[in-house]
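Milestone M4 deliverable, item 7.
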Amino acid sequence: MTERLKRKRRLPELTEIPNFCSHEHWGSIRSIGHVSEGFRADVECGAVPHGETGVWDILLDPYFRGCLGSAGIDPDEPARRAGRSDFFAWAKEAPEAARRALWPALQQQSFTGTYQSIRRGIIALYGADLANDSPQEWGTADTGIARNYQKPFHWYQNVMTRSHFSALVRPVHPEYYVREDSPETAREERIFTKTVMRIDPLLDLWADESPRRAGLAGIAGIDPKDGESWRAFIAKLFELAGIRGAVGIKQLQAYRRDLDFQPRADSEVVWRGQLTPEQKRVFQDWVVHECCRQADALQWPHQIHVGTHNLPVSSPLPLGPLAQKYRQMKIVMLHCWPFLIETGWLAKYHPNVYIDSCWQPILNPAFYREAMSTWLNYVPLHKIMCGHDATSVEMAVGSSLFTREILTEVLTENAGRLGMGSVHISRVATDLLHNNAAAVYPMAA
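Output delivered:
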């Protein structure tokens, strides 16, 4: 191949192509906090920090703190030895002492995708590098984060513009559609945020005494006791979610059980009580199928967590029958690693099954490169989406940098090997980063 032809096929980095954020958890940080159902940002529309947000809120998010925990590191332990209640209290009172205590553990994680996604996002947005052993760098990031999180929704929109993020879809709990931090902040969030409603909480509402079921029954105006009332209960929750901007449903049951959801008749189900493991499974199967039936009628997509945890039980292969039964419901398999071949096969041979690589660059950028190399020459291109699954907008920016860089490399390799021009490859990149998700979630585009 001549050098001239190589130059003609070489792609620029895909920095300005719009990127659809199809599955994000922005706001899942300590300063915004928790409620009994989960992260406040997933339960209260318009949830904002009730105190100052700092660099440690962004760095010690659920993902990276989980990385530290898996390595045997509890940031609160040295804080307690120093006489503080937890690490955040220590970092506020003695920021340099706290940072120095945790620095060796950060160095051990310094090449991980989670750390690097946060680090690169902070570099891009604040001009400060957390890999530098410098109080000034950390102070710059801390000051900027504190300022921006005074109005987080304005900040999110600012970053979306700067980073060429085209749309935002967040998974939230059913309570989110009726709870608000305040009417003003809820309006601010709804301006640019669409949601998918998590159905996984419904799968645990079988106990005799269930405060959450009682709360949701109050929201829906229906107490689910049998098949008929459960259908009406789910329908009401779907209706409320749709009114408040929901564009689909989501579940993460693969964290706890397999994805083999069998059809169940009402007569098989024990609706309440001290259920045996098998009775719980039957109840969960019924709830999933009823949610799928109603999503199918609404033509709502269904995001399903696949892989990453609960291995090997979180295989996606049992989703095939679900896709065949509910053909108007698009199944979007999230994450997919390490089941890249299995998810590729399902997406290739089922018209209503799709793939979203979100979280792969945060877990390990090499996982994303492997996935793109596996899928691009096998799966129809319109079936692949490239979101991020970040707990903060800063992490999403870092993940998007990895995504754009690696996608550039993989598409350029394909362009050279297949003899395809840069115009065609740029069109493919636009589909992967934006158009495919916009077609699956048209109300969010």
